[in-house]
Design a protein that fits this description.
heterodimer; A: alpha+beta; five-stranded mixed β-sheet; B: alpha/beta; six-stranded mixed β-sheet; six-stranded antiparallel β-sheet; 35 strands; globular; binds flavin-adenine dinucleotide; binds protoporphyrin IX containing FE; binds iron/sulfur cluster
Amino acid sequence: MTEPSVFDEIVDFHNRANPWPLYDKLRTQPVWQEADGTFVVSTFREIYALFHDPRISSDAANLLPEFAHKAGPLSDGGGALPPSFIRTDAPRHDTLRRIAMRQFGPPHRPDRIDKLVPALEAIVTRLVDGLVGKDQCDLVDDVAYPFPVAVICELLGVPEEDEPRFSAWVDPIVNSAGQPTPESKEQAKEAFQQLGMYMFQLAQRRKADPGDDMLSGYVTDDGPDGQLEGGDLFATLILLLIAGHETTVNLIANGWLTLLRHPEALQRLRTEPDFSIRMVEELLRYEPSVHFVPNRIAVADIEIGGTTIRKGHPVVLVLASGNRDGECIPHADRFDPDRADNVHLAFGNGVHYCFGAPLARLEAQLALTQLAKRLQNPRLLADPPPYRPSPVLRGPIHLPVAYDGVLPA
Amino acid sequence: MVVDLTKCQGYAQCAFLAPEAFRMVGDEALMFDPAPSADQRVKVLRAAAACPVQALQVDMADLPQQPPAEPLVAAKGDRLRRDGRIVIVGASLAGLKAAEQLRADGFTGTLTVIGDEPEEPYDRPPLSKQVQTGFVASADTTLPRRRDIAADWKLGVAATGLDLERKRVVLADGQEVEFDRLLVTTGVRARPWPVPEEAALDGVFTIRTRGDAAGLRERLLAHPKRVLVIGSGFTGSEMASVCVELGIPVTVAEAGPAPLSGALGGVIGRISAGIMREHGVDLRTHTKVSSLQGEDGKLRRAALSDGTTLDVDVAVVALGGIRNVEWLESSGLAVGVWGLACDAGCRAFTAAGLVTDDVFVAGDVARQPQPMFGYQFLAMEHWGNAVTQAEVAAHNMISSETDRWPHLEMPAFWSLQFGHNIKSVGVPPIADQIAITQGSVESRQFVAAYGYKGRVVGAVSWNQGKWLDFYQQLIEQAAPFPLPYDMTNPPPDPVPVPAEFPDRQYPGREATVVVTGHDPSERRATLVRPSRRR
Ligand SMILES: Cc1cc2nc3c(=O)[nH]c(=O)nc-3n(C[C@H](O)[C@H](O)[C@H](O)COP(=O)(O)OP(=O)(O)OC[C@H]3O[C@@H](n4cnc5c(N)ncnc54)[C@H](O)[C@@H]3O)c2cc1C
Ligand code: HEM
Ligand code: SF4
């Protein structure tokens, strides 16, 4: 057995609670070649450059055969569906994303997310109301998870009562994205099929009886690029569902953890208007929900950071490490909500820049502000808290918090 | 508020979070309202924080209170920085950015900003875009203040002369202002229609100032029968796009082979011509306007070199600009049709080509050597250039020799027309070849690279601006052309073809410098002006 690499250590679950010293170590070299042929990129400048480099692909078909097994389940829908647009390149990517965006944001639906703010506010209020009468809660199970799930369900047009069913399908898919093993991939494939079937039935219903939700839009509206056909529709819906489920939960949970570790910021959130706006931006940099983008492939040899990334090899962009790169970001290890010109990598960059970023930002701003204003004397019951298994979508699996009371909204 | 559209990559975060103030047109072209109403404040702050490239600049009055910055202490003996006198002539984008940079760099002396326009500095790019479509009012284009400048503003009064010996700027009202350091940011004015009587007809417009834009907007609102756009560079093409959007019939007369061909070459020009015609623009290339004809002082008709006569009631003259250097003509500085020449650190040259130490220049009026491009002297009439050059000039004005910066920013610009976002980096006009590198021309989503003698010198993107950073790096590294690697989204036809730029013009009959004297200590270069140009 060879020594584990720095990146192996980062992936190792034992280091989930505090990977930051390992990221410092990783940044001593901008680009690493792992024993299995994967290239790992650690520094801000190089990650940023590769996000804009047309020699970098998101399409698993560009992997050399010996790496094909590394393609996660999101790339081929476990074989059941075509790849969703996160795993495609232009022009296909741009077209699919444009059609998907037509029901979500500008230019076609410019104010959909802005108009959603009162509904978001109401959902958080309801969830925080649910903490009344107790003196402790699990911030993940009680707020951070149900909030974005309720929102994405409402947006997509998935009946809320079906939520437990597809949460059970989403879990295996996400788990095998982080660590693809033969069993996890088999489970993911199964889940994909079930989800696809469920979505198919739902789409039929919406077609017959459309509402104002995104799914109804996808099956009834026809733009200049046409509609999402067959498998593309289900792949897109599943992508949105998973992305809406598994990322914002970490932002809210990591955020609350960070606030309880930085009481001065928590206090400012209670008193200073608009503080949440920059605070959440800094949170995204300091405790990003997505620690790395694991799905890139070089389509040519690329000289970068003193190394040559080889054509056909997988490339991992370690966003969390780039976000703490002191070469580009002043006092990168300090949580500083007053930071000016906060450019970070939490949502990726370039053409695959996160589709749901505006929604995620609003969700975190609203949820954290309400929690700060309403929970009295909140205290962490476990620091560090227990973490989810995934090294990619990193965040607490539970976040037990004690408090003295809940103020009215 | 203003968006630095050179930086903007069209991520639309702003348009999601503050939809009243920001609008996406097509995939990535952004239109913004520079003066959103007060109830939009929180949304605009959300947008500014979220922009992934931090391209939004919000006025300090609307920002949350910042912890006071640590005061910069001027080094001992740094008299100039502490209590020097700095004068800026030209109160627009470059002048304002320089003033802010001076204060940011710790300049605590007196600062005087002189401008012949009566208004505070405002932003010009919206004047041919969202102001004409009616999304924003021309009066709402004031540039945001990013810090307190504490300047003495002399607005509405032109500088008429410069006495280098006595270090004074002479103003139109007879005042004289003394300086230790001078910054020239007098920019460009619109080139008027060459026949004064025809130019004076009611209905004939240029667009450079707020007043121009407001007048034109008012006229467009009155539903003219047809608008004639003379010249199809960026401003002319944008105006044609505005007319199409407003449903006004429009003819574009272009003396050259295609729109935009001066800036982007004939290959891109033909694409742009195709787009114009698809949108119903009556585009006439290789066609000049021979005369503008009026009745009762009002424009009625235009005669074209193709023999036709058009009934038009509005003509937009978009024939480029004239650099505002007349006030410097007897100063002994290197001024002429090319602007005011300077070194890479923005220090102005004398007519003889010697560098001065007290006079700096930035923005549209400056002509500077580009080390990346064989030290050619180039003038960049782009927003982003005015900003970065002003910042470098300001820094250098109060820094010692060893602490000066060169202005090596990669030239970049954008244009929004017919729903397309066109962005460019580098210096396409020096190229001899062009090759499509990503995407396809048919889909109107592509990137093309420009090469000169086997090296990448520029790139243009059509609704694919997120890739341009890559090309900027290639240009900076003098990478080979054509690009020797596989890429995603390869074009159907990647073979380089001639870029088709018009021949370059050098001063011929208009030669402006003569040299006299024999002994090296007596040799002098003098500017001559055979006839005063307008
Ligand atoms: C309609 C329009 C659309 C544009 N669109 C784009 C675009 O899409 N993308 C892009 O990159 N760029 C665009 N530009 C160019 C951009 O606006 C300029 O590059 C920028 O304004 C340059 O700033 P400046 O301060 O150097 O010069 P200017 O803005 O020209 O300012 C010079 C100032 O000096 C004043 N002045 C002149 N002479 C004197 C004197 N003797 N005494 C006192 N004051 C004097 C002038 O009145 C003026 O106020 C556009 C310009 C226009 C007009
Ligand atoms: C804190 C919350 C979130 C974070 C940190 C996050 C992060 C990211 C990142 C890093 C990417 C880039 C992936 C890549 O480059 O391959 C991405 C893409 C994406 N995200 Fe998010 N995301 C979040 C929330 C959401 C939400 C709420 C949605 C859905 C509404 C969403 C939908 C998507 C989609 C569809 C893509 C693929 C975009 C493309 O390939 O063009 N995300 N996200
Ligand atoms: S890059 Fe910034 S300014 Fe440009 S569209 Fe995106 S959020 Fe808006």
